[in-house]
Amino acid sequence: MSDHFPPAEDVLVLPEHLRRDLHLRRGGVLSTEPGVFDRALGEVAPGDTVGPAAADVAAKLADEHRGHIKAVLSAAASDPALVAHARAYLGGADDPAGAAAIASIVAGVRGGNETPRTFTDGWIASHGLAFAACALAELTAVDSFGKGLRPTDALRQIDSVSLRRVRGLLALCPEEEYLRAVERLAAHRGTRTRRFVVSYLVPTRDDWMDECCAEPPSAEWGSNAFYRERLWASVSTPRHLELLGWRLEDSDFDALTYGMRATMADGLGAAVAPVLVDAWDRLKIYTRWREPFVELISLLPSDEAFELLLERYEREFAGAHLRAAMERFPVRAARVLSRVAASDSTSALLAAGLLRTHLKARPELSGPAPAPRVPDAPAADVPAVLTAPGRAPRLPAYAEPDLLPQVLLKGGGLALPAAATRRLVALAKKQDESLDAVRDACDRRSLADLGWALFLHGDAWALAALGLLGDDRTARELAALIPGWVRRGTKARAVKAVEAIARIGTPEALDVLAELAKKAPDTTVRDAAAKARP
User: Fold this and answer.
1) Is the pTM for the entire model greater than 0.70?
2) Distance separating alpha carbons of residues 269 and 327, to the nearest angstrom
3) DSSP-derived 3-state class of residue 143
4) What confidence tens digit (pLDDT) does each residue in 17-50 have?
5) Which residues pair with 151 in a beta bridge?
6) Do residues 332 and 9 touch, judged by C-beta distance below 8 A?
7) What distance in Å separates the CA atoms of residue 80 and residue 74, rounded to the nearest whole number?
8) How many CB atoms neighbour CB 293 within 10 A?
9) How many Å apart are CA 77 and CA 150, to the nearest integer?
10) What is the pLDDT of residues 227-259, one digit of tens each?
11) Which of 207, 164, 160, 214 is nearest to 182 (CA)?
């Protein structure tokens, strides 16, 4: 199959509902039109400006605290260099460090979120975006306490709304203005907090971000959500991820809005797939974020993202969004499904069924020649339970016989006809004990393959059905899934898997059960395994 993809299959397109709450980056996608609440969080839109009146408001605020400012600048405890910057700014000099010092002094007595936002808008109105960006970087390095003013290199949090607003305005401003800001910010990267803030404000400088990723804070790093968020919003190359050695953690999902995941995808493109999937594998993701999280993975234009999603097809929302990815990336889908179907992966059976569906719907696509079908067995050789009259329950579309692995009779030369296969699936769905006769008459491996293909589609009944259809390999593969289910909070599913392994009942399945009773990563699962042993 050709490695060529149509241009549209290599482009990340974020739908409107996933573009809410983005942290804008220059050259990236635009967020949706922000509402009043979104603007209060720092979002901006094309055409947004800061009116000239903002300069007067900021000046008035500083004037209201003129006495306190004078006292702090005159205090013996204040740093002389910072005092000099502050006095220069008050005297009309273009001095971002001095502006930051004045804002810090006022915030120290006035408090509240509006103080830094008032000064930020005032800086933009009176001195321009480049100055405001530099002043925000300098603000991280200033600490005003009581009647003193000192420099600091601690991970000092500054107003996130002001930062996000300036980043957004820089992302949307004319090119000349942006380049001027980048040039000026180069002189305001002297401490690690300044470097973090500068890289957040102008994330297009990958070399600056390399420096941030190469020197992350140590002891305090894991608990400082503010700076984790700033850097997650600024990564844009796989090298950044490599240098950071990061994984998303539960605390990131508490601290970050959903828009941060889309911001990461906007910066990294398809390279974000392993980070997102790793979090999906390990963490309990907040219910409201689960489906858009899976949807975001399905939108990433890469073989890796598609295959990672295929491997997790049985999980909540994964099947629907993988099928959507097949429609979005039809050439890629045919290529990846063909490769996986020919492998010994646990997803091979699923991939083969999906590939048959995909190529049937899109005959213009090329794919591997289908394996020859084993001839149908005559009715007399089919187990009677599969030919007896009965009303089968409604089956899902993926359970059509031509999309499933063939079930062979013992000896392997003949297979169940389509009608018998439908009846078999219907009985498995009802967990009908009469399937014992089918297990005696059919090749156990092919029967287990059918069960596994059904299970990978994610319907709850198919997990229980594996107890009737599965074999030794099924028992091992189910046991391998249990730790992940426990980590992600689906403990009930892990217990159902234990019950299915017990129902398989072969000597090796019972050995797997004994191992789970000793080493399963959860007391409830260990107890269930111990109780299920004969």
Assistant:
1) yes
2) 20
3) strand
4) 888 889 999 999 988 888 888 899 899 999 999 9
5) 142
6) yes
7) 10
8) 20
9) 8
10) 888 888 999 999 999 988 877 777 676 655 678
11) 207
